[in-house]
Amino acid sequence: MAADRCNEEDGGRAGADSDASDSGRWQRFRREVDRQFFYSLLTGKKGDCPVQQKQLNGVDVGQLEENIQAIGKKPALAKFQFRASNQWVNGSHNRSVIKGFYGVGQEDATRTEPFVLEADEPPVLLGADRGPNPTEHVLHALAACLTTSMVYHAAARGIRIESLESHLEGDLDLQGFLGVAEGMRPGYQGVRVSFKVKSNASPEQLRDLCKYSPVHDIVSNRVPVTISVTQA
Predict the structure, then answer these.
(1) Contact 168, 136 (CB under 8 A)
(2) Closest by Cα among 198, 112, 220 to 154
(3) CA dihedral of residues 51, 54, 57, 61 (deg, nearest 10)
(4) Whole-number CA gyration radius for the chain
(5) What is the dihedral of CA 84, 165, 53, 215, to 10 degrees?
(6) 27 contact partners, CB below 8 Å, separation of at least 6
(7) Could you read off the pLDDT of 99-152 as tens digits, one per residue?
(8) Could you tell me the pTM of the whole model?
């Protein structure tokens, strides 16, 4: 009977190991299917996506190069539309929800849950600090986009980044927001960004990569904004 129990236990362990192995194979298969599907969307080709990956700075450089080549052949794939919906809660507290976007020639369906962003003001500005204020969200967006742009373009050029951090400051005069000083702009009068990077590239090379940041372009150049208001 003891031998039978041992055999049962061994069989149970073998079954569990087999289940774990099957699960691992299934996860790898699903990742490869996702990779093949994305490649086919970009290139219009079926099934010949290279499996071998080259990682640099956490970026799949092989896939990045394939995407660049595919967009070069079919520029329409580069057209994206991002969206956000916002709802007022109370006072200065409001909430944005972000989920769907359009890109690579179709509506994205990979996000199953939305991102929720809270915005408020500190007590000195009559808020309750339920989240960063909108101008702080702008600093976050700028920092995040500059960082991503630097990392991606560095990877494409074979530049290794070991660590990267940034600090941002924005100067704002509330007289513009309050409308009590003619000619005073409501927004930032200036923004300063300082990076601390450990890399095999020079600071000049890394700073030059920031020019590819979409958010840096948005805050540095005039962008048409259309505002419409309807009765609820």
Answers:
(1) no
(2) 198
(3) -80
(4) 25
(5) 30
(6) none
(7) 999 999 999 999 999 999 999 999 999 999 999 999 999 999 999 999 999 999
(8) 0.77
